[in-house]
Amino acid sequence: MEQQGDSLRHHCGVVGVHSANPDNIPEKLFYGLFALQHRGQESAGICYRKEIPEDGTGRFVTYKDLGMVSTVLSRYLEKPHPSTLGIGHVRYSTRGGNRLENAQPLAASCNKGSAAIAHNGNISNASALNARLSMDGSIFQSTSDTELILHMIARSRQPDFKSALIETLGELEGAFSMVMLHEDQLIAIRDPWGFRPLYIGFSDTITAVASETCALDMLKIRDFREVKPGEILYIDSSGVKSETFAPGTEPKRCVFELIYFARPDSLVFEESVHLTRKAMGAALAMDESAEADLVMPVPDSGNSAALGYAEQSGLPFEQGLTRNHYAGRSFILPTTSQRELAVRMKLHPVREVVRGKRIILVDDSLVRGTTSRILISLMREAGAKEVHLRLSAPEIKFPCYYGIDIPTRKELISNSLSPDGIAAHIGADSVKFLKIPRLMECLKDGEGYCYACFTGNYPVQPREV
Ligand SMILES: O=P(O)(O)OC[C@H]1O[C@H](OP(=O)(O)OP(=O)(O)O)[C@H](O)[C@@H]1O
Ligand SMILES: NC(=O)CC[C@H](N)C(=O)O
Ligand code: SF4
Ligand SMILES: [Mg+2]
Fold it and tell me: What's the catalysed reaction (predicted)?
Protein backbone atom coordinates (compact mmCIF):
# COMPACT_ATOMS: atom_id res chain seq x y z
CA MET A 1 0.00 0.00 0.00
CA GLU A 2 1.43 3.40 -0.90
CA GLN A 3 1.75 5.82 1.98
CA GLN A 4 2.14 9.53 1.46
CA GLY A 5 3.14 10.83 4.91
CA ASP A 6 0.38 12.85 6.47
CA SER A 7 -2.06 12.69 9.37
CA LEU A 8 -5.22 10.65 8.95
CA ARG A 9 -6.27 10.66 5.35
CA HIS A 10 -9.87 10.49 4.36
CA HIS A 11 -11.19 8.18 1.72
CA CYS A 12 -13.48 8.62 -1.22
CA GLY A 13 -16.97 9.81 -1.95
CA VAL A 14 -19.35 8.48 -4.58
CA VAL A 15 -22.55 9.72 -6.12
CA GLY A 16 -24.92 8.34 -8.76
CA VAL A 17 -28.01 9.84 -10.38
CA HIS A 18 -30.79 8.37 -12.51
CA SER A 19 -33.50 10.54 -14.02
CA ALA A 20 -36.73 9.38 -15.62
CA ASN A 21 -36.41 12.17 -18.20
CA PRO A 22 -33.31 13.67 -19.81
CA ASP A 23 -31.77 16.17 -17.40
CA ASN A 24 -28.42 17.92 -16.91
CA ILE A 25 -27.00 14.91 -15.01
CA PRO A 26 -23.37 16.16 -14.92
CA GLU A 27 -24.53 19.26 -13.08
CA LYS A 28 -26.37 17.13 -10.50
CA LEU A 29 -23.28 14.99 -10.06
CA PHE A 30 -21.24 18.15 -9.57
CA TYR A 31 -23.50 19.35 -6.73
CA GLY A 32 -23.43 15.95 -5.07
CA LEU A 33 -19.63 15.74 -5.31
CA PHE A 34 -19.22 19.29 -4.08
CA ALA A 35 -20.99 18.29 -0.85
CA LEU A 36 -18.67 15.26 -0.55
CA GLN A 37 -15.44 17.17 -1.14
CA HIS A 38 -14.26 16.48 2.43
CA ARG A 39 -14.07 12.76 1.55
CA GLY A 40 -11.43 13.15 -1.14
CA GLN A 41 -9.39 16.00 -2.53
CA GLU A 42 -6.90 14.31 -4.84
CA SER A 43 -9.07 13.90 -7.92
CA ALA A 44 -12.65 14.37 -9.04
CA GLY A 45 -14.59 12.95 -11.96
CA ILE A 46 -17.90 12.08 -13.53
CA CYS A 47 -19.10 9.56 -16.09
CA TYR A 48 -22.53 9.90 -17.67
CA ARG A 49 -24.47 8.36 -20.51
CA LYS A 50 -24.68 10.58 -23.55
CA GLU A 51 -27.79 9.61 -25.45
CA ILE A 52 -27.52 8.94 -29.19
CA PRO A 53 -31.07 9.73 -30.40
CA GLU A 54 -30.42 8.43 -33.97
CA ASP A 55 -30.35 4.78 -32.85
CA GLY A 56 -31.74 5.07 -29.30
CA THR A 57 -28.44 3.99 -27.74
CA GLY A 58 -25.93 5.87 -25.64
CA ARG A 59 -22.24 6.00 -24.84
CA PHE A 60 -20.40 6.79 -21.65
CA VAL A 61 -18.53 10.09 -21.45
CA THR A 62 -15.94 10.46 -18.68
CA TYR A 63 -14.54 13.73 -17.46
CA LYS A 64 -11.99 13.67 -14.62
CA ASP A 65 -8.75 15.18 -13.46
CA LEU A 66 -6.50 15.62 -10.46
CA GLY A 67 -7.75 18.40 -8.17
CA MET A 68 -10.82 19.61 -6.34
CA VAL A 69 -14.39 19.30 -7.61
CA SER A 70 -14.90 22.96 -8.53
CA THR A 71 -11.56 23.23 -10.35
CA VAL A 72 -11.97 19.99 -12.26
CA LEU A 73 -15.63 20.19 -13.20
CA SER A 74 -16.67 23.86 -13.41
CA ARG A 75 -15.35 24.46 -16.91
CA TYR A 76 -16.98 21.31 -18.23
CA LEU A 77 -20.34 22.42 -16.88
CA GLU A 78 -20.49 25.73 -18.70
CA LYS A 79 -23.01 24.15 -21.08
CA PRO A 80 -25.69 21.55 -20.23
CA HIS A 81 -25.18 17.87 -21.02
CA PRO A 82 -28.61 16.19 -21.25
CA SER A 83 -28.55 12.62 -19.97
CA THR A 84 -30.51 10.17 -17.85
CA LEU A 85 -27.78 8.62 -15.70
CA GLY A 86 -24.28 9.11 -14.41
CA ILE A 87 -21.86 8.54 -11.53
CA GLY A 88 -19.21 10.68 -9.85
CA HIS A 89 -16.22 10.27 -7.54
CA VAL A 90 -13.87 12.23 -5.29
CA ARG A 91 -10.69 10.38 -4.40
CA TYR A 92 -8.12 9.92 -1.72
CA SER A 93 -5.94 7.06 -2.82
CA THR A 94 -5.67 3.99 -0.64
CA ARG A 95 -4.14 1.77 -3.29
CA GLY A 96 -2.46 3.17 -6.39
CA GLY A 97 -0.90 6.63 -6.16
CA ASN A 98 -2.38 10.04 -6.76
CA ARG A 99 -2.12 9.93 -10.55
CA LEU A 100 -4.58 10.68 -13.31
CA GLU A 101 -4.82 7.06 -14.45
CA ASN A 102 -6.12 6.15 -10.97
CA ALA A 103 -8.76 8.90 -10.92
CA GLN A 104 -12.32 7.61 -11.04
CA PRO A 105 -14.88 6.82 -12.46
CA LEU A 106 -13.22 4.07 -14.51
CA ALA A 107 -15.12 3.08 -17.65
CA ALA A 108 -14.66 0.14 -20.04
CA SER A 109 -16.41 -1.79 -22.78
CA CYS A 110 -16.24 -5.55 -22.72
CA ASN A 111 -18.01 -8.68 -23.86
CA LYS A 112 -20.81 -7.93 -21.39
CA GLY A 113 -21.49 -4.34 -22.50
CA SER A 114 -20.27 -0.92 -21.43
CA ALA A 115 -19.71 -0.29 -17.75
CA ALA A 116 -18.30 2.37 -15.42
CA ILE A 117 -17.45 2.25 -11.73
CA ALA A 118 -16.82 4.63 -8.82
CA HIS A 119 -15.61 3.02 -5.58
CA ASN A 120 -15.21 4.05 -1.96
CA GLY A 121 -13.28 1.57 0.12
CA ASN A 122 -10.34 -0.73 -0.20
CA ILE A 123 -10.27 -4.32 -1.44
CA SER A 124 -8.21 -6.12 1.19
CA ASN A 125 -7.41 -9.14 -1.02
CA ALA A 126 -6.42 -6.92 -3.99
CA SER A 127 -2.85 -8.25 -4.22
CA ALA A 128 -4.03 -11.83 -4.56
CA LEU A 129 -6.66 -10.88 -7.17
CA ASN A 130 -4.13 -8.76 -9.04
CA ALA A 131 -1.65 -11.63 -9.18
CA ARG A 132 -4.30 -14.00 -10.52
CA LEU A 133 -5.54 -11.60 -13.18
CA SER A 134 -1.98 -10.76 -14.27
CA MET A 135 -1.19 -14.46 -14.64
CA ASP A 136 -4.28 -14.78 -16.82
CA GLY A 137 -3.03 -11.97 -19.07
CA SER A 138 -4.91 -8.88 -17.86
CA ILE A 139 -3.32 -5.59 -18.89
CA PHE A 140 -4.04 -2.87 -16.32
CA GLN A 141 -4.48 0.81 -17.13
CA SER A 142 -4.20 1.88 -13.50
CA THR A 143 -2.68 0.67 -10.24
CA SER A 144 -5.84 1.06 -8.12
CA ASP A 145 -7.78 -1.85 -6.67
CA THR A 146 -10.98 -0.58 -8.31
CA GLU A 147 -9.92 -1.58 -11.83
CA LEU A 148 -9.68 -5.22 -10.73
CA ILE A 149 -13.47 -5.31 -10.45
CA LEU A 150 -13.98 -4.41 -14.12
CA HIS A 151 -11.43 -7.05 -15.19
CA MET A 152 -13.08 -9.73 -13.09
CA ILE A 153 -16.49 -8.96 -14.61
CA ALA A 154 -15.08 -9.01 -18.15
CA ARG A 155 -13.17 -12.29 -17.62
CA SER A 156 -16.04 -14.07 -15.89
CA ARG A 157 -17.45 -17.14 -17.69
CA GLN A 158 -20.96 -16.16 -16.58
CA PRO A 159 -23.28 -15.48 -19.52
CA ASP A 160 -24.29 -11.91 -18.70
CA PHE A 161 -23.22 -8.77 -16.85
CA LYS A 162 -25.45 -9.27 -13.84
CA SER A 163 -24.33 -12.82 -13.05
CA ALA A 164 -20.69 -11.86 -13.71
CA LEU A 165 -21.06 -8.96 -11.28
CA ILE A 166 -22.55 -11.17 -8.55
CA GLU A 167 -19.78 -13.73 -9.07
CA THR A 168 -17.15 -10.96 -8.81
CA LEU A 169 -18.65 -9.47 -5.64
CA GLY A 170 -18.41 -12.91 -4.02
CA GLU A 171 -14.64 -12.83 -4.51
CA LEU A 172 -14.03 -9.36 -3.09
CA GLU A 173 -12.90 -8.92 0.51
CA GLY A 174 -12.85 -5.63 2.42
CA ALA A 175 -14.67 -2.40 1.81
CA PHE A 176 -16.66 -1.42 -1.26
CA SER A 177 -19.47 1.07 -1.38
CA MET A 178 -19.80 1.56 -5.13
CA VAL A 179 -21.91 3.01 -7.88
CA MET A 180 -21.78 1.54 -11.37
CA LEU A 181 -23.26 2.24 -14.76
CA HIS A 182 -24.14 -0.61 -17.08
CA GLU A 183 -25.79 0.37 -20.35
CA ASP A 184 -28.92 2.30 -19.22
CA GLN A 185 -28.84 1.11 -15.61
CA LEU A 186 -27.41 2.68 -12.44
CA ILE A 187 -26.24 0.10 -9.89
CA ALA A 188 -25.47 0.70 -6.20
CA ILE A 189 -23.53 -1.87 -4.16
CA ARG A 190 -22.45 -2.03 -0.52
CA ASP A 191 -20.09 -4.70 0.82
CA PRO A 192 -21.58 -7.26 3.24
CA TRP A 193 -19.79 -5.73 6.26
CA GLY A 194 -21.04 -2.23 5.39
CA PHE A 195 -17.66 -0.65 6.20
CA ARG A 196 -18.41 2.53 4.22
CA PRO A 197 -21.76 4.33 4.23
CA LEU A 198 -24.10 4.54 1.23
CA TYR A 199 -27.54 6.08 0.88
CA ILE A 200 -30.26 6.04 -1.78
CA GLY A 201 -32.82 8.84 -2.09
CA PHE A 202 -35.80 9.74 -4.21
CA SER A 203 -37.31 12.98 -5.48
CA ASP A 204 -40.16 13.46 -7.97
CA THR A 205 -37.74 13.44 -10.88
CA ILE A 206 -34.55 11.64 -9.86
CA THR A 207 -33.17 8.72 -7.87
CA ALA A 208 -29.75 9.40 -6.38
CA VAL A 209 -27.16 7.37 -4.48
CA ALA A 210 -24.45 8.99 -2.35
CA SER A 211 -21.89 8.24 0.35
CA GLU A 212 -23.49 10.67 2.80
CA THR A 213 -26.88 12.33 3.08
CA CYS A 214 -25.33 15.83 2.79
CA ALA A 215 -24.98 15.10 -0.96
CA LEU A 216 -28.67 14.14 -1.18
CA ASP A 217 -29.57 17.35 0.68
CA MET A 218 -27.72 19.29 -2.04
CA LEU A 219 -30.00 17.60 -4.58
CA LYS A 220 -33.07 18.57 -2.49
CA ILE A 221 -33.80 14.93 -1.71
CA ARG A 222 -35.46 14.38 1.67
CA ASP A 223 -36.81 10.86 1.14
CA PHE A 224 -33.87 8.48 1.59
CA ARG A 225 -32.72 5.26 3.19
CA GLU A 226 -29.46 3.44 3.81
CA VAL A 227 -28.29 0.94 1.17
CA LYS A 228 -27.97 -2.13 3.40
CA PRO A 229 -24.73 -4.05 3.86
CA GLY A 230 -24.66 -6.76 1.19
CA GLU A 231 -27.41 -5.08 -0.85
CA ILE A 232 -27.29 -4.43 -4.56
CA LEU A 233 -29.75 -2.02 -6.17
CA TYR A 234 -30.57 -1.88 -9.89
CA ILE A 235 -32.05 1.47 -10.86
CA ASP A 236 -33.52 2.11 -14.31
CA SER A 237 -36.62 3.51 -16.00
CA SER A 238 -38.70 0.60 -14.64
CA GLY A 239 -37.86 1.54 -11.00
CA VAL A 240 -35.55 0.18 -8.30
CA LYS A 241 -34.88 -3.52 -7.73
CA SER A 242 -33.13 -4.68 -4.58
CA GLU A 243 -31.22 -7.94 -4.07
CA THR A 244 -28.98 -9.30 -1.34
CA PHE A 245 -25.73 -10.85 -2.50
CA ALA A 246 -24.16 -12.00 0.77
CA PRO A 247 -26.80 -12.92 3.32
CA GLY A 248 -25.77 -13.69 6.89
CA THR A 249 -22.63 -11.55 7.19
CA GLU A 250 -22.45 -9.50 10.39
CA PRO A 251 -22.18 -5.75 9.66
CA LYS A 252 -18.95 -4.03 10.75
CA ARG A 253 -19.38 -0.35 9.94
CA CYS A 254 -16.36 1.91 10.22
CA VAL A 255 -16.69 3.77 13.51
CA PHE A 256 -14.19 6.35 12.24
CA GLU A 257 -16.80 7.64 9.80
CA LEU A 258 -18.70 8.89 12.84
CA ILE A 259 -15.62 9.99 14.80
CA TYR A 260 -13.92 12.00 12.06
CA PHE A 261 -14.61 11.48 8.36
CA ALA A 262 -18.22 12.28 7.66
CA ARG A 263 -19.73 15.77 7.62
CA PRO A 264 -21.56 16.76 10.82
CA ASP A 265 -24.81 17.53 8.96
CA SER A 266 -24.87 14.03 7.41
CA LEU A 267 -26.45 10.84 8.53
CA VAL A 268 -24.20 7.84 8.15
CA PHE A 269 -25.20 4.35 9.32
CA GLU A 270 -28.55 5.91 10.32
CA GLU A 271 -26.78 8.02 12.98
CA SER A 272 -26.52 11.82 13.04
CA VAL A 273 -22.81 12.54 12.79
CA HIS A 274 -23.00 15.74 14.86
CA LEU A 275 -25.15 14.28 17.64
CA THR A 276 -23.04 11.13 17.87
CA ARG A 277 -19.88 13.23 18.18
CA LYS A 278 -21.55 15.32 20.88
CA ALA A 279 -22.42 12.12 22.77
CA MET A 280 -18.77 11.00 22.45
CA GLY A 281 -17.62 14.33 23.90
CA ALA A 282 -20.12 14.05 26.76
CA ALA A 283 -18.97 10.47 27.52
CA LEU A 284 -15.37 11.70 27.59
CA ALA A 285 -16.30 14.45 30.05
CA MET A 286 -17.93 11.89 32.38
CA ASP A 287 -14.77 9.78 32.58
CA GLU A 288 -11.93 12.21 31.99
CA SER A 289 -12.61 15.52 33.65
CA ALA A 290 -9.97 18.06 34.77
CA GLU A 291 -9.97 21.31 36.72
CA ALA A 292 -10.20 23.94 33.98
CA ASP A 293 -11.59 27.33 32.95
CA LEU A 294 -12.88 26.49 29.49
CA VAL A 295 -13.35 23.85 26.78
CA MET A 296 -11.97 24.49 23.30
CA PRO A 297 -12.26 22.40 20.12
CA VAL A 298 -9.58 21.77 17.52
CA PRO A 299 -11.66 22.91 14.57
CA ASP A 300 -13.38 21.60 12.55
CA SER A 301 -13.38 17.92 13.35
CA GLY A 302 -13.25 18.47 17.14
CA ASN A 303 -16.16 20.95 17.26
CA SER A 304 -19.10 18.66 17.97
CA ALA A 305 -17.29 16.56 20.59
CA ALA A 306 -16.06 19.72 22.37
CA LEU A 307 -19.62 21.02 22.52
CA GLY A 308 -20.74 17.73 24.11
CA TYR A 309 -17.81 17.86 26.55
CA ALA A 310 -18.62 21.46 27.55
CA GLU A 311 -22.34 20.74 28.04
CA GLN A 312 -21.63 17.68 30.18
CA SER A 313 -18.89 19.32 32.28
CA GLY A 314 -20.70 22.64 32.72
CA LEU A 315 -17.54 24.52 31.64
CA PRO A 316 -17.77 27.41 29.14
CA PHE A 317 -17.22 26.54 25.46
CA GLU A 318 -14.86 28.87 23.59
CA GLN A 319 -13.55 29.13 20.04
CA GLY A 320 -9.94 29.71 20.97
CA LEU A 321 -8.43 28.40 17.76
CA THR A 322 -9.06 29.93 14.37
CA ARG A 323 -8.92 27.76 11.36
CA ASN A 324 -7.81 29.08 7.99
CA HIS A 325 -10.35 27.61 5.59
CA TYR A 326 -8.13 28.22 2.61
CA ALA A 327 -5.80 25.51 3.90
CA GLY A 328 -7.26 22.20 2.73
CA ARG A 329 -8.61 19.69 5.17
CA SER A 330 -5.48 17.57 5.11
CA PHE A 331 -2.01 17.95 3.71
CA ILE A 332 -0.06 15.43 1.71
CA LEU A 333 3.38 16.38 2.81
CA PRO A 334 6.25 13.96 3.19
CA THR A 335 8.36 15.41 5.99
CA THR A 336 7.68 16.32 9.61
CA SER A 337 8.81 19.91 9.12
CA GLN A 338 6.40 20.32 6.20
CA ARG A 339 3.59 18.87 8.28
CA GLU A 340 4.43 21.26 11.08
CA LEU A 341 4.25 24.18 8.72
CA ALA A 342 0.93 22.86 7.47
CA VAL A 343 -0.53 22.87 10.99
CA ARG A 344 0.68 26.44 11.54
CA MET A 345 -0.87 27.48 8.24
CA LYS A 346 -4.17 25.93 9.24
CA LEU A 347 -4.71 26.63 12.94
CA HIS A 348 -3.86 29.58 15.17
CA PRO A 349 -4.84 30.50 18.76
CA VAL A 350 -6.90 33.53 19.71
CA ARG A 351 -4.50 35.04 22.29
CA GLU A 352 -7.19 36.95 24.17
CA VAL A 353 -9.10 33.70 24.80
CA VAL A 354 -6.25 31.43 25.86
CA ARG A 355 -4.04 33.83 27.85
CA GLY A 356 -3.82 32.82 31.53
CA LYS A 357 -6.42 30.05 31.14
CA ARG A 358 -6.54 26.37 32.12
CA ILE A 359 -7.86 24.80 28.92
CA ILE A 360 -9.45 21.50 27.97
CA LEU A 361 -8.60 21.05 24.30
CA VAL A 362 -10.83 18.53 22.50
CA ASP A 363 -9.84 16.86 19.23
CA ASP A 364 -11.26 13.75 17.61
CA SER A 365 -8.11 11.67 17.30
CA LEU A 366 -4.34 11.44 17.66
CA VAL A 367 -2.41 9.80 14.84
CA ARG A 368 1.23 10.87 14.85
CA GLY A 369 0.69 13.62 17.40
CA THR A 370 1.99 16.31 15.06
CA THR A 371 -1.12 18.50 15.14
CA SER A 372 -1.48 18.53 18.91
CA ARG A 373 2.24 19.00 19.63
CA ILE A 374 2.32 22.13 17.50
CA LEU A 375 -1.00 23.41 18.73
CA ILE A 376 0.02 23.05 22.35
CA SER A 377 3.27 24.92 21.76
CA LEU A 378 1.31 27.67 19.95
CA MET A 379 -1.11 27.86 22.86
CA ARG A 380 1.72 28.07 25.41
CA GLU A 381 3.28 30.87 23.34
CA ALA A 382 -0.11 32.59 23.48
CA GLY A 383 -0.08 32.40 27.28
CA ALA A 384 -2.19 29.30 28.10
CA LYS A 385 -1.62 28.27 31.72
CA GLU A 386 -2.58 24.58 31.37
CA VAL A 387 -3.59 22.47 28.39
CA HIS A 388 -5.42 19.18 28.96
CA LEU A 389 -5.91 17.28 25.70
CA ARG A 390 -9.02 15.10 25.39
CA LEU A 391 -9.58 12.81 22.41
CA SER A 392 -13.06 11.63 21.42
CA ALA A 393 -11.57 8.44 19.92
CA PRO A 394 -9.69 5.61 21.63
CA GLU A 395 -5.94 5.16 21.03
CA ILE A 396 -5.16 4.32 17.37
CA LYS A 397 -2.61 1.51 17.41
CA PHE A 398 -3.19 -0.47 14.20
CA PRO A 399 -3.43 0.34 10.48
CA CYS A 400 -6.69 0.12 8.54
CA TYR A 401 -7.14 -2.18 5.54
CA TYR A 402 -10.60 -1.00 4.61
CA GLY A 403 -10.09 2.36 3.00
CA ILE A 404 -8.59 4.74 5.57
CA ASP A 405 -4.97 5.61 5.10
CA ILE A 406 -3.74 5.21 8.68
CA PRO A 407 0.08 5.23 8.84
CA THR A 408 2.12 2.17 9.75
CA ARG A 409 2.14 0.97 13.38
CA LYS A 410 5.60 2.42 13.91
CA GLU A 411 4.40 5.95 13.12
CA LEU A 412 1.30 5.81 15.34
CA ILE A 413 2.12 7.65 18.55
CA SER A 414 -0.22 5.51 20.68
CA ASN A 415 1.64 2.44 19.56
CA SER A 416 4.83 3.44 21.34
CA LEU A 417 3.70 5.79 24.13
CA SER A 418 1.14 5.62 26.95
CA PRO A 419 -1.22 8.60 27.41
CA ASP A 420 1.19 9.99 30.05
CA GLY A 421 4.15 9.44 27.71
CA ILE A 422 2.24 11.25 24.96
CA ALA A 423 1.48 14.16 27.32
CA ALA A 424 5.20 14.52 28.03
CA HIS A 425 6.06 14.24 24.32
CA ILE A 426 3.57 16.84 23.10
CA GLY A 427 3.87 19.17 26.12
CA ALA A 428 0.32 18.73 27.47
CA ASP A 429 -0.57 18.77 31.16
CA SER A 430 -2.64 15.62 30.62
CA VAL A 431 -3.87 13.46 27.72
CA LYS A 432 -6.94 11.19 27.95
CA PHE A 433 -8.78 9.11 25.36
CA LEU A 434 -12.38 7.92 25.07
CA LYS A 435 -12.66 4.27 26.12
CA ILE A 436 -13.99 1.69 23.68
CA PRO A 437 -16.98 0.59 25.83
CA ARG A 438 -18.00 4.26 26.21
CA LEU A 439 -17.69 4.77 22.46
CA MET A 440 -19.91 1.74 21.90
CA GLU A 441 -22.55 3.20 24.22
CA CYS A 442 -22.79 6.29 21.98
CA LEU A 443 -23.99 4.13 19.05
CA LYS A 444 -27.41 2.57 18.45
CA ASP A 445 -25.77 -0.76 17.56
CA GLY A 446 -22.30 -0.69 19.11
CA GLU A 447 -21.64 -4.35 18.22
CA GLY A 448 -22.21 -3.66 14.51
CA TYR A 449 -19.03 -1.61 14.08
CA CYS A 450 -15.38 -2.17 13.23
CA TYR A 451 -12.88 -1.03 15.90
CA ALA A 452 -9.82 -2.70 14.37
CA CYS A 453 -7.56 0.38 14.36
CA PHE A 454 -7.97 0.49 18.16
CA THR A 455 -8.02 -3.24 18.94
CA GLY A 456 -6.23 -5.02 16.08
CA ASN A 457 -9.26 -7.38 15.77
CA TYR A 458 -9.83 -7.22 12.02
CA PRO A 459 -13.35 -8.29 10.97
CA VAL A 460 -11.99 -9.41 7.57
CA GLN A 461 -8.50 -10.83 7.92
CA PRO A 462 -6.15 -8.56 5.92
CA ARG A 463 -4.11 -10.56 3.45
CA GLU A 464 -1.42 -7.96 2.89
CA VAL A 465 0.03 -7.44 6.36
O1 LIG B 1 -1.86 13.34 15.29
P2 LIG B 1 -1.81 13.83 13.89
O3 LIG B 1 -0.96 12.94 13.00
O4 LIG B 1 -1.42 15.24 13.75
O5 LIG B 1 -3.28 13.66 13.29
C6 LIG B 1 -4.43 13.95 14.02
C7 LIG B 1 -5.19 15.07 13.40
O8 LIG B 1 -5.51 14.71 12.03
C9 LIG B 1 -6.89 14.92 11.81
O10 LIG B 1 -7.14 16.23 11.37
P11 LIG B 1 -6.83 16.71 9.87
O12 LIG B 1 -5.83 17.77 9.92
O13 LIG B 1 -6.51 15.53 8.99
O14 LIG B 1 -8.22 17.23 9.32
P15 LIG B 1 -9.34 18.19 9.96
O16 LIG B 1 -8.87 19.58 9.75
O17 LIG B 1 -10.55 17.90 9.18
O18 LIG B 1 -9.54 17.85 11.40
C19 LIG B 1 -7.52 14.74 13.18
O20 LIG B 1 -8.73 15.47 13.28
C21 LIG B 1 -6.49 15.30 14.14
O22 LIG B 1 -6.67 16.68 14.31
N1 LIG C 1 -10.28 5.92 -0.43
C2 LIG C 1 -10.98 5.22 -1.25
O3 LIG C 1 -12.14 4.87 -1.02
C4 LIG C 1 -10.20 4.88 -2.47
C5 LIG C 1 -10.84 3.91 -3.43
C6 LIG C 1 -9.79 3.06 -4.12
N7 LIG C 1 -9.28 2.06 -3.21
C8 LIG C 1 -8.65 3.90 -4.66
O9 LIG C 1 -7.59 3.98 -4.09
O10 LIG C 1 -8.80 4.51 -5.66
S1 SF4 D 1 -9.87 -0.22 11.04
FE2 SF4 D 1 -10.61 1.74 11.92
S3 SF4 D 1 -10.65 3.17 10.18
FE4 SF4 D 1 -10.54 1.09 9.34
S5 SF4 D 1 -12.67 0.44 8.96
FE6 SF4 D 1 -12.11 -0.28 11.01
S7 SF4 D 1 -12.77 1.41 12.37
FE8 SF4 D 1 -12.68 2.23 10.31
MG1 LIG E 1 -8.30 17.54 12.94
Answer: 5-phospho-beta-D-ribosylamine + L-glutamate + diphosphate = 5-phospho-alpha-D-ribose 1-diphosphate + L-glutamine + H2O
